[in-house]
Amino acid sequence: MEAIKTLYDIATTMVPAMKDAVFVKTWAGLRPANPNIKPFLGPVDGWRKLILATGHFRKGTLLSPITGEIVTSLIIGEPSPIDWQPFTMQSHQLTANGG
């Protein structure tokens, strides 16, 4: 509840008229992440035509342009603008197992 109050305080400071607003409904979006905070990117072994692009946690909007470029390069079979190998399912499994 403290986070909601903090957001409310910030919002009403920026838009004082919101203090008189009646809130009918609230919503919270989930931020998918994994323990090492790296997103999952790339094809999944054993699943033809499946490409993951998830787990960006707080940086989903920030990383969406480069994620889109990486996924596009994988789909059309062209070189990626960056090395996405550190973000594959396999790299996460190795990290999770201490490898």
Automatic annotation (TrEMBL):
Name the Gene3D superfamilies on file.
D-Amino Acid Oxidase, subunit A, domain 2, FAD/NAD(P)-binding domain
Q: Where is the FAD dependent oxidoreductase domain?
A: 2-74
UniProt name for this protein? Glycine oxidase ThiO
Q: Which InterPro entries match?
A: FAD-dep_OxRdtase, FAD/NAD-bd_sf
Organism lineage string: Bacteria, Bacillati, Bacillota, Bacilli, Bacillales
